[in-house]
Amino acid sequence: MVRFMKKNENEYKLIHVKEADEFIGIKIDGNIIEIYVPEIYRESTNLKQSRQEILMFLKSISLTNAKSNANIKSSDNDLVGEMWPIESYVWIIKDYLENGYFYNREKKYFNDGKGKIDWKRTLKSSPIYSNGNIIYNKLVTFRVSATNDIIAQIYKLCLSVSLKRIGWIFNYKFKVDIQQYISNKEMIYHVKKELDSTFDDVKRLRFRHMLKILNCIKEDNVLSDRSTYGIKNYYYVVEQMIDKMFMGIDNKRIKSKFNPIGNWQLENGEEKNTRVLRPDTIYEAEDKVYIIDSKMYKYGYTANINDLPQTSDILKQIAYGDFIKNKLGYFNVRNVFIIPYDKELDLFKYNEDFVYIGVASGKWINPKKIKSHQFIYTFLLDYMHLLMNYNKHDSSNIEKMCNTVENLLSKQKIIH
Does residue 1 have a pLDDT over 70? Predict the structure, then answer.
């Protein structure tokens, strides 16, 4: 049964969060929807566009799934609530809108002459012989009807979960009235069994999405009106978005060679390697290597020079460059900071999606002997542009970064 919601049940509250290590995500408690977004999140004035932005924001949080991305080393304390399989929610809702509720179709057989004839079963019956003719007077027919079985009930439960969590984004004002009679574990068992028994591609896809939804529910009560989905340390997400936009090396085996590691050797014979350092993004272009550090620095919404990367950040980038140049033998090594910002803030005068703002280096370095990787060229990247485009193949920002860095190095007459 579908029940339409009241007009004000789709409203939500947008809460801007300044600190990168605080909760970012969504909390739902009945009709109360609170969305916690970074301070640099800029909501569109167009309603349709703003809903699409929220959907992309929620999808971005899934980049923290450590199982699918080994570059993210987030702990259980970073992830808050349940992981939401957004794509599966969208698929189930779309499937319902296009096809209605899913029911298993049951084939029933009759001898009433109504429906299609099942010749295989009919020919197995005893015929009548008359004047040399063979007559089958008991025709077996069949009719297919929808059955409200356990799988149909589980489908409705998955649809209900999907509507509660993201239906409001699409302004869908209906709910599914359904009861939960078995545990989440039992539902997973039944769907897996159904998946293994069918060769229908659409059914298999449907069951896989249902399993994703059920597997991401921590509590046994699937029909709970309360849910939380988010992360502490949202900069994990930003790192991954920038890594994708700037086409960083995604082969884990190849990328791991760029990770420097320390070592302890004690007088008592004990020896141990320290934890490895991992550059956020490594981009290779012909004979050049670009080391990109991307963090949620406060500068992105304060424009205060004190909120730019500090000495420890600068030193770490230079150390990456030293390792890649001296240990790995790369000749042309470049360093880059990319800081997400809100281009429409009055504090900034750029109003560009991607813009160069300056360079960092170490005061301890002899200016006559400075190397190319000891400069960290710094760019601002509009957060909303990043959010809406990180998974698209667009090399314009990469070209702008590379050309800017190479032109500046050329002017400074630094070759390597």
Answer: no
